[in-house]
Amino acid sequence: MRDLSELYSSTSIEKKESFDLSRASTFRIGGLAKLALFPKNEEELLKAIRISKENEVRFEIIGNGSNVLFADEGFDGAIIFTNKINNVTLDDCYITAQTGTKLVKISSLALENSLSGFEFAHGIPGTVGGAMIMNAGAYGSDMASVVVSSRYYDTKTYKIEVISREEHKFAYRDSLFACDRSLVFLSTTIRLQHADKYEIVEKISKNTESRRNSQPLEYPNCGSFFKRPDGYFAAKLIDDANLKGYSIGGAEVSTKHAGFIVNKGGATANDVLLLSKHIEDTVYQKHGVKLEREVKYIF
Questions:
Q1: Domain ranges in the chain?
Q2: CB 271, CB 250: distance < 8 Å
Q3: Is 224 a catalytic residue?
Q4: How far apart are alpha carbons 32 and 49 in whole angstroms?
Q5: How far is CA 17 from CA 14, 57, 225, in A?
Q6: Domain 88-198, CATH class in plain words
Q7: 114 belongs to the catalytic site
Q8: Could you report the average pLDDT of every consecutive run of 10 residues in the chain (299 residues)?
Q9: Does CATH place domain 4-81 in 2.60.40.10?
Q10: Catalytic residue from among 224, 228, 254, 276
Q11: Among residues 151, 173, 187, 228, which one is catalytic?
């Protein structure tokens, strides 16, 4: 068995072998990654990707781990974490953020400078990279509503490209980066609007209170587990199927919000997958609607 760490030894990239993935997931679930890499800038990120591809190493790029479920068996390859690549710049009403930037950092910068339009993302516990891939949104807004342009790295041509908003192919919980995983998102520029700071604070406070009252923040979870089916709300379909509180092992359909699966303690990825399958089958039997997972399963 080859030593993965040795492949990256010519770089200054921080490395950790047998890394516990449950530490890197808001679900607090997952086995060991053979190798974890923590590049501190774009240059190191691109090096990590090139070395992985040239040596046929399986790799996944992860931000805050807020919308992923890691397998119990772990990952027999390299997990590349982007958290340290988080530079943010401000130019009038434009904010440019690198892939590993937490959304709350962007919304806080916007608030400090009386810029409105990003309040929706204040309570989303992810990075801008993950948000761009899935076109994250809440309270009637999403990334598509603020993005001006983005930069990405094409792992087939080894070139950095810049695209306009239209070229992102944004759709509900979808984007160019979700459709073509050979394109690695690097940074984006968003445009906001000057507004009264008090009104921005009010919006953030209202959204925060709504999340606190409606979401099971007291338990490890990865947000809404299923996408919203056309013409329906996943949570209502699950609730109407009398599945609130249904559990398998340590995984449970939240009694507070049926669209969430929570880790009540000691849940495994297998528990979550079995519960997800039970939810999907039951909802289809009762309502004739097929649910699709929003969460990415990494195995």
A1: 4-81, 88-198, 216-298
A2: yes
A3: yes
A4: 20
A5: 10, 14, 30
A6: alpha beta
A7: no
A8: 86 97 97 98 97 96 96 98 98 98 97 98 94 94 97 96 97 95 97 98 95 95 96 97 98 98 98 98 98 96
A9: no
A10: 224
A11: 173
